[in-house]
Every structure is written in structure tokens, then in C-alpha cells.
Amino acid sequence: MPTHSNRKRDHIDICLGSDIEHSSRSGFEAYQFIHMALPELNVEDIDMTTNVLGYSINLPIFISGMTGGIDDAVNINGDLSELCSDMNIPFVLGSQRSMLYDQTSSESFTIARKRAPNGLISANIGATEIASKENHKGIYTIIDSISANFLTIHANPLQELFQPEGNTSFSGVLHAIEDFRKRIEIPIIVKEVGSGISLEIAKKLHDVGVDAIDVAGKGGTSWAAVEMKRNQDEYSDYFREWGMPTSYCLLSLREYCEQVGMTLFSSGGIRNIHDIAMSIAMGAQAVGMARPILVAYHTGGILAVKTMLNNLMKDLQRIMFLTGSNNINALSHVRIRTV
Ligand SMILES: Cc1cc2nc3c(=O)[nH]c(=O)nc-3n(C[C@H](O)[C@H](O)[C@H](O)COP(=O)(O)O)c2cc1C
Fold this sequence. Notes:
- With 339 residues, the protein is α/β, with parallel strands linked by helices.
- It has one domain: Aldolase class I (TIM Barrel, Alpha-Beta Barrel).
- It is 45% helix and 13% strand.
- It has helices spanning 4-15, 72-87, 97-101, 107-115, 127-130, 136-145, 157-162, 173-181, 199-207, 223-230, 237-240, 246-260, 273-281, 291-322, 328-331; strands spanning 31-33, 50-52, 55-57, 61-63, 91-92, 121-126, 150-154, 188-191, 212-214, 263-266, 286-289, 336-338.
- It has an eight-stranded parallel β-sheet with strand order 4-11-10-9-8-7-6-5. Strands 1-12 form a two-stranded antiparallel sheet. A two-stranded antiparallel ribbon has the order 2-3.
- Strand 2 and strand 3 (55-57) form a beta hairpin.
- The chain is globular, with a radius of gyration of 19 Å.
- The N and C termini lie far apart (48 Å).
- Residues 11-12, 15, 64-67, 94-95, 124, 154, 191, 193-194, 216, 220-221, 267-270, 289-291, 294 line the site of flavin mononucleotide.
């Protein structure tokens, strides 16, 4: 049976390779912004700050959960967390499951807080871990160990199905989240990992007290493809492509989330500034990326990630100008059309 650290090592190696993305994209490419020939604003007056879950952030972008529990993750999580803190954007750690069983893996997570004492950092644990009551004490420790600002719970049934060591015990997750909600004060975010979250599930999550949904839809990293690469003897194109595109999830959830005051995040296949700006126009309050950040880090270190984020910031400002949006709230109400 592969260990947690073998698995996390494999995930990084495979995600740095090729042929692990869905064959269709996240759906934003089917939409265009209505161009504003008279923006009626000055580009230097554009404000890209926004509020998420009680915090003001400089840019509606965050780094999604990826790694931890292996030696390499000490540098990755430390560097990314510090950069996010310098830019005042949130950083989500990879699954902290290993900390439930092995405290020696904790440095690769606690480094995030050490390097970013004032950063906005999310703890991360799986839905199947939270379903098991005996883990709850350990999960409080995980949260405390990094003084987490948020708790992200990842729901990944497709990935668990294809993982050689996967845990497919998803009974009782909602009840466990409800129970857990009563005991912690920080906001709880529930995310997928590339198959998306439907309106029906968003409603159930809201009913048990979840504060935010990160749809993490289809169009980028396919976790069935990643796990099938690890598990070479079982390969299915059908499941590799399973899921709902990120744009579809946002359009399905926006009205409900606005109505009940639940925060909506976009991620899954966010690959360029169009995906980011269109996510906001479709109701997302902030937008996350995983694999592109890992690839940039591997290619050019933290400087490459910084350059990438700075370029996205400049291009977001350009889109805001060309759509006549002086702030993020205005961008979330611009008109779009299908191509
Ligand atoms: C190398 C790697 C490891 C990941 N590990 C985790 C994890 O531990 N916990 C989690 O919630 N999501 C994890 N993810 C999933 C991402 O957070 C994200 O939901 C998914 O990859 C889709 O986004 P993308 O298309 O931008 O990669 C991982 C992603 C990558 C690339």
C-alpha cells in the first residue's frame, strides 16, 4: 500500500508531466465581454481589492491547495505562502491528512505560517476524514498548528474511486460538517478537485453551515487521469472526462449564493486572465489556480510565480478598464455574451 508521502510525491511528479488535463476546457471560452468603448473611468482609478470571508484582499485571486507531508513541500508551501502574504491574497495548503497520523510531517504545513505570520492561510482536510468522528480532535490540532484563517474541506469522490489506496466512505459527511461547524469559529469552505459542485449540493452545504463553496470544476487537472496514471492497469476515458465545467457551476450557483449570502469561489481549469475575469463576471468572489502555479514554480521558482501573478494583475486591470469596471463589484455585474 503506497504511503501518504509516496502519494503526494507521485501527485507532484505526474502533475508536472503531460496528458493529465480534461480534453475540454472550463467553458469560459464560450463567452465574451461586451466591450465598453467609453469606459467613463481612468485606468489608474481602478480598485482591484475585494472582501472575502471577512478579509480585505488586494486581488481576487488565490492559490489552491496542493501539497504537504513531503520534504519538497517545505520549500513549496513556505515560498508560496510568503508570496501570497506579500501580495495580500489567500493561500490554501494541500491536504493535511498526514498530520492526523504522523506529526513528523507537520513542518511542511507549519512552515506556511512561519514564513507568513500575517498571511491568509487555509487549512485543508478531506471530506472522508471529517466524516470520521475520531479524527475531529486531530483536525482541531491541524487548524491550530497553522493558526488557520479558514478551513477548506475537499470533496473528491472521483479521485478516491481511482486512487489505489482511496477511501470511498462518504456516508455521513454532511452531518459531520454540521457537527464540526458548531465547534470552530473560522469560515469553512468546501471545494471539489476538478469535477464541480452542483446547486443541489451547495444548498445542502449551506444548510449545514458552510460559509463558502469553491466549485473546482472541470476544465483543468483531471484527478481521474492523475490517479489512473498511478494505477496503470485501469484506464477509462469516460471517467477521465467526468465532471461539470467550472463556468457551468458558477452560472448554476450564483443566484442562490447571492440570495443566501454564501461566498462563491471559482477554480478548476483557470488558465488565463479571461478565465479569471469571466469567473468574476459569473459571480465568483475570488478565483483559484493549482497546477499552473506548480508548473511555474517548478520551471522558474518563486520568481516565476510572482511574475505570473503580477502579469495577471496587470491584465485584470486592463479588462476592468475595457469593461468600464472601476472595482470588483462592478466587474461582477458587467454584461457578457456567448461567442
Ligand atoms: C499537485 C497537486 C496536488 C493537489 N493536492 C490537493 C490536495 O491535497 N487537496 C486539495 O484540496 N486539492 C488538491 N489539489 C487539487 C487542486 O486544489 C484543484 O482543485 C484542482 O487541481 C483543479 O485546479 P487546476 O485545474 O487549477 O489544477 C491538487 C492539485 C495539484 C495540481
